[in-house]
Amino acid sequence: MNTKRCPSCEIEKPLSAFWIRRDRNAPASRCKPCSADAQRVWRRKQPDYDKLRYQAVKTETRERHLIRKYGVSLADYESMLSAQGGRCCICLCEPSSQAHGVFHVDHCHATGRVRGLLCRGCNHVLGHLKDDPSALRRAIAYLRAAPEIIGRAILEAEAALSRPEAA
Fold first, then answer.
1. How far apart are alpha carbons 148 and 118 in whole angstroms?
2. Environment class of residue 139 by beta-carbon count within 10 Å: exposed (0-12), middle (13-18) or buried (19+)?
3. Cα of 90 vs its chain's centroid, Å
4. Rounded distance, CA 117 to CA 106, Å?
5. 60-69, 76-85, 95-104, 141-150: which range is least confident on average?
6. On the CB side of 37, how many CA atoms lie within 13 Å of its CA?
7. What is the C-alpha to C-alpha distance for residues 66 and 60, in angstroms, rounded to an integer?
8. Is 124 helix (H, G, I), strand (E, B) or coil?
9. Is 14 helix (H, G, I), strand (E, B) or coil?
10. Residue 17 DSSP label
11. What distances in angstroms separate CA 123 from CA 45, 56, 110, 161, one per listed residue?
12. In the predicted model, is pLDDT for residue 78 greater than 60?
C-alpha cells in the first residue's frame, strides 16, 4: 500500500503527501494540504492560543531557550545578574527598562562562550561592531573628538573640491 485516500479532499495520494504521526509512526489521516487548511481554520478560531500557552509555561520555555542556545540555566542567569549588580555591564541600566524585563545573554560568536548580560541596545552595538575591539576603540575616539569639527572638515573638503580651480 503506497497510497492512501485523504478523507477531507477524498483524493488518493502517495504516502509522501501525508505527515508521519510520531505517536503511531504511521501516516496522518489527512494529507498535508488538508492538514494545513484545518490548522489555519482552527488557529483563526483560537487567536490567543499561543499567547495563553506561552504564559502558562513562561519560565520553563525561557529556561529551555537559555539552555539550548547558551548552555545557561535560569539559576546561572540569576547568579550572573547578581554578580553584575543587577545592571547591564556596559550602560548600567536595569532589566526593568527592557521590553520584557530581561537582559540579552552576550556571547562570543567565535567561541560561543558567554561573556555577560547586556541590555538590548548594548548587545546590538557589540553585534554591529562584530565584536571587534579596534572598531570599538575607533568609536570611542570618534565620540571623544568633537564630531561637529570632523563634520565641518568633511564639508569644507567637499566644498574645496567643488570650487573651480584658480588659474
1. 30
2. middle
3. 20
4. 6
5. 141-150
6. 7
7. 10
8. helix
9. strand
10. G
11. 38, 29, 16, 40
12. yes
